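Deliverable D4.2, example record:
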Amino acid sequence: QAETVKPCITGILDGSRRMTLMIEDLVDTARLDGGHLPLEREPVRLSDFLGRVLEHSEKIINVDRLTVDVSEDLPFVSADANRLERIFMNLLTNACKYSPPNSPVRITARTEADCVRIAVIDQGRGIAEDDLPHIFDRFYRVKGESRKDRVGLGLYITRMLVEAHGGRIDVESAPGSGSTFSFTLPVAE
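Output generated by the structure prediction step:
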């Protein structure tokens, strides 16, 4: 009997997690749109921070496929650690979801003037040119994308969080050649 009950419980838990994420997305969107999402900024060392994020996300993404190229010599960034984790998880989840299984996903970071540019680079199917201008829009889904998992707010929330930090986010992609999502964060003073 346990063999028949266990898949049901797993399905219920998975559905519950998806619903929780959708509700969190909707609440965060309302707060971001209304300017009511305060940031608790602190100096963050990216190399240490990423190590902790990846350690906590082993159940969500296959961290074995991730390559992190982030020097410990980078300056600290000024960020809200919880919101920064959300940015990374949105980008990493998408990179893994839209890439072939076990294909590498790289995270890089480098200093640029008074900011640090972080990039998440995948080997996925890429994004059509028609979709690129809208990829960070609220509720936008690329053509042919299944709607069962989320509501199309992940990249919108990611953009809003990056901009709330005083940064900027961009994407470079072409069908069949993967995608590079890069964003900037200000250097901590």
